[in-house]
Amino acid sequence: MADVINRVLHAAIGKVCSRGFCLASVGSVNVTTAPEVSDRVWTIPNVLSLIRLALVPVFLVFVIIGEDGLALAILVFSSVSDFLDGVIARRFQQITRLGQLLDPAADRLFIFAALIGLAIRDVIPWWLFIVIVARDVVLLGFGILGASFGYGPLPVHHLGKVATAALFYALPILMLGQAIPETAWIASPIGWAFALWGAFLYWWAGGIYFRETVRLVQIPRLDEPAPSDTLVD
Predict the structure, then answer these.
(1) Cβ-based neighbour number of residue 41 at 10 Å
(2) How does the average pLDDT of the chain come out, rounded?
(3) pTM above 0.90, yes or no
(4) How far is the C-alpha of 2 from the C-alpha of 84, rounded, in Å?
(5) In a domain, 181, yes or no
(6) Would you say residue 184 lies in a domain?
(7) Domain range spanning residue 7?
């Protein structure tokens, strides 16, 4: 069954590359390609990510006050710039450690902002917001656990990317139904389908991260041998 799902996902999304990792397998987090990652700050992808982060509070205000057209315009710009910064980073060797933090942070903040704004307006129930946010809180705990054993953040699994993409489709589609009521009859069911699948896959990916974290922390760590008092040629 897992093999069938894996083939379907690969057929649907091809090989999904995050900023710094190309990932392959639904069942585990495997790094198949690891491009060079630099410590540069001022790169075009990083500037685009910073612009996206700066637009998050503006987007949230527009959602809360019901300016769905303007909110959708910001979300479209964010999606296009998200695609462009990934392409530029890979093609021009501008993958950076800062970018690997900013890019997913901007994605999550846009999702949270949309969820909060739509929940405040009763477009979506608060339980959906809690389900999605709770998963990231749990993953934060996994990250702290891994860090306590000397491990950095796990590379982004492509199932998590699919879940994030589903939510990115769901929220603007639901907002479209609010902005143009004539489309609500089709926008609402499609938006809810994406939202529910996105939430499900979000937690499925969280389960994979949990399994990988447990596997890592169970690896025996060998203490560094003490330096020898005798020089051996």
Answers:
(1) 12
(2) 78
(3) no
(4) 32
(5) yes
(6) yes
(7) 2-216
